[in-house]
Amino acid sequence: MHELSIAQSVVSTVRAAVGGRRVIAVTLRIGPLAGVVPDALMFGWDVVTSGTALEGARLDVERVPVEIMCAGCGTTGERTTSPPWRCAACDGVCAPLGDGRTLEVGSVEVEDDVEAVDDVAVGA
Known about the structure:
This protein is α+β, with helices and mostly antiparallel strands and 124 residues long. 23% of the residues lie in helices and 33% in strands. It is built from 2 helices and 9 strands, in the order αβαββββββββ. The strands form 2 sheets. Strands 1, 2, 7, 8 and 9 form a 5-stranded mixed beta sheet that branches. β3 and β4 (76-79) form a beta hairpin. α1 packs across α2. The longest helix is centred in the first third of the chain and has 16 residues, at 3-18. It is elongated, with a radius of gyration of 17 Å.
């Protein structure tokens, strides 16, 4: 379960950004090709935040869409789910046009104020 190591990386990244302030919520932006199972990440989050300034903090997951294009008819669209993707127009197979592997801290809410940590890439 690599979600546990992702949760640990997020905790390290956030702790470095906010110092010792108590964290209320973290928003994590995840693309459909990031290979992350949100439910497993939530479980890992509770484990790795225990005893830290993030203990009790809410983890919000924002699904980041990837643009796709149908190989058959060329129709484009966006998806936030994992593949396989089918075309809404012709039921053909669609492929991603973008990376789709977004995994970043979108924002962090701390006890005294709200501080955005924009587009911080998370290494796992």
